[in-house]
Amino acid sequence: MNNQPEPNRRQTLQMLLIAGGVGSTIIASGGIGAAVAQSATDTQADLASRMKSEALKYLASLDPAKAQRSSFPFGGEERTRWHWTMTSTFPRNGVTLGELDASQYQAAMDLLAASLSSRGFDKVQDIMRLQALLPTGAADPLAYHVSVFGDPNDVQWGWRLEGHHLSHHFTVVDGKVSMTPFFHGSWPTTTQTGFRAMPREEDAARELVLSLTPALRNRVVFQENSLRHVTQNDISVSALPVVGLRFSELGNDQRALAAEIVATYLAALPTAIAIEKQARFDASASDALSFGWAGSHTPNQSHYYRIQSETFLLEFDNSLNEGTHIHSVWRDFGGDFGTDHLKT
């Protein structure tokens, strides 16, 4: 439901849709989501500090009624209640981007920019803009809910941005930051101008499958029919059965493609988080890493793949609308919603 006066809503929508168009890089000094300087020495404490500052600015930009609707207890059930589908199917709480005026929308985008890499911010904007290409009334580019959990001044707090094909969770515990579940999706996945929402996430995996010998290809495809992402919107997940091939069975070229897939997802995260997750991936024994594929390996046909280690699961589901409707999610075993940090 949109409570924003129509002129303000049009202005906010224009900020999203006209600021560069689908696939453009719009993070620039003074633009939507001003660029946040990050370096290889950036720490999680630095990241947590930036997120805190922008979250407080966002809350301060709201009137009391919106601030109350955007705020939830850190320990409540709302923090782990999540989904990627449209709000008409999964009713959500929190304030939508469509209810914000231009300055409030800017504050929300500054919070998002502080929480992701520039590439991650661009991808979120692209996912939102693509909603405008769906049939009228099917989706709304501004129907994304902003929710803050707890007080950003406390040692434990978090926030979430969620709507159709997007569910990002940010949890801060004593300066340590968790960003899973991390859900990206897209429908449509392409535009008439040739833009693709998630090209290497799809193509690198297909290239890996096609580069295998026939014998190994028969093994990596663990079922002929595609399937939906297995973990769905479960609050916590554990390792799925190992399917396909272990990395120890892949050649150097195939391992490089698998590493590219992982790196493509990590590129959306801020430096401090991406470096930590990359280090975990690099430290994993090749026997503990697996890659499996289901469905067709022909473009624009339904397919699914997953990469799994002893610490994380990456699922990519392109099973709907003849392989033009992507769901992808990164899950950390024992770490989603900051669970591991909360136990220490």
TrEMBL record:
It holds the Pfam family DUF3500. This is DUF3500 domain-containing protein. It comes from Pararhizobium antarcticum.
